[in-house]
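Observation: inputs received (chain + LNDFFVEH).
Thought: call the complex predictor directly.
Action: predict_structure
Action Input:
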Amino acid sequence: MQHQERKIYKRILIMTAVPMEKDAVARGLQRAEADGFVVEVAGVGPASAAASTAALLAGRGFDLVVSAGIGGGYPGRAAIGELAVSSVIVAADLGAETPDGFVGVDKLGFGSARIEVDAELAARLTEALCVAELPAALGPALTLSTVTGTAATAERLAALIPGAASEGMEGFGVAAAARHFGVPALELRAISNAVGPRDRAAWRIPDALRSLERASTILAEVLR
Ligand SMILES: O=C(O)c1cccc(C(=O)CC[C@H]2O[C@@H](n3cnc4c(=O)[nH]cnc43)[C@H](O)[C@@H]2O)c1
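Observation:
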């Protein structure tokens, strides 16, 4: 097996989209009696997330940024109430629509829609969550500006990004800001809904916030 270097992170910025996610993360960190963490609200969507994260990273000495919140889970990969840890963060709608379908920026040749994460940390966090009886999937975390609301789009995205585990609206924005400052990023989603046909009544936001709180305790323990 290839040896993966274990990096030590001491100053960690956690970006959530909304205050209720920030509060859940803060409760989890408090239970772990963690220090070195700052939790902030980024706003909803990749642009707001990137701008807020960049403003916080400028000159503040953070060495890891985590995008955390509730999210959609891809069927068969992450169920409601479970967790999803990013193996890579992907801007899934960054590209061009053509008569033959969607073409991503990588293929178009103007940048990349993928931001790599610290693979060793992602694997270690996923394992620690599972050991704590918080089922967690390790896989691509997709960022979209529009929440997926049809089976056709969910199937297209799952085929486009094999192994897609979660969907959110901020991860790539947070990670793009982190990359700009040379800081590694990770995404952690607590699943509130299945990615697929829109069924707002089936969303389980309180359950996902409870999972996010528990996962934040484990995140602090893993980073300690
Ligand atoms: O449509 C509604 O009534 C509604 C009410 C509350 C929240 C929403 C959202 O769309 C929340 C977006 C927010 O949550 C994340 N999120 C949660 N599930 C997903 C998803 O399946 N796909 C993308 N994003 C999701 C997202 O990161 C935002 O921060 C709607």
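Thought: report the result.
Final Answer: Residues 24 and 220 are 13 Å apart (CA to CA). The first strand starts at residue 12 and ends at 16.
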